[in-house]
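Support reply, case 0932

Customer input (verbatim):
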Amino acid sequence: MSKHFKHETVLLNEAVEALNIKKGGVYIDATFGRGGHSAEIIKQLGSEGRLLLIDKDPLAIAFAKEVYKDDERVFVWQGSFKDFPQALVDAGLNKANGILLDLGVSSPQLDDASRGFSFMREGALDMRMNPDAGISAAEWIAKADEEEIANVIYLYGEDKLSRRIARKIVEKRVESPISTTLQLAEIIVSSIPMRLQKKEPGKHPATRSFQAIRIFINRELDDLIECLECSKESLASSGRLVVISFHSLEDRIVKRFLRAQSTSPKMPRGMPIRDDQLEVPDFKLIGKAVKPSRNEVEINVRSRSAIMRIGERK
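Our regenerated output:
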């Protein structure tokens, strides 16, 4: 690989411990990134254990193949984490004993300006986790109507100024194509009144809009919902689902899923029910939500919004 970027793995020890690793188990790092979690998981696996690594990003896949080229316990698969059941089939495996999702964008993706994720660095406005599939952010912005842009920014970025930002984007693209990250960032900043920018002094005004467009372009929330549903069938009994989220939309989906799957349905009062009619929940919750320590946040500021939830298949 020609480019190397430092990546600080978030909640490293906490996530690996949450997987409750068995030496002969099957584990999936469904968002490999640069493999911080995987490096710890593999240390705890015996010769019969298996580790399945998944990522959309071709650079992450190339990195994984290089690192684990001589380890027969590891199977590397390119694709969305929602398709992990197919990856299990391709690897000749059945059920998993643990699935780890570390959501969001990895540091190498943010730090590589050419990927188009960062509003702080000049680069082509791409934002695709897999640059070889789908349409780029620039292509979408060039053709989407004002209402669609506003809806994406509002739904996925939770930005109350979404309509104002969308109007400005549509106005500016008439003058010249919006093809770089800093172009888009400047348009967003110029559409937000200074008095509102001052209300969040530590936050770049383009943060929410960039997040929203990235989530939309990569179908991140749709993929997350599908992945969580698949875990019900693909996790072995006592298998763990460990999810690290980085913003409220992701965490809300994970929290609601685990709560729903760990709660027995309410039965009508006074109605006699046989034991064989009782529905047993698919999961049980393991502990409370986990957040990075103050020390971790000081070392890696990008970890500050992380939250980890754990469910165990019954």
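We compared this against your earlier run and they match. Two observations from our side: Residues 12-107+220-313 form a domain with the Rossmann fold fold (CATH 3.40.50.150). Residues 1-5 have pLDDT under 50 and may be disordered. Please reopen the case if you see a mismatch on your end.
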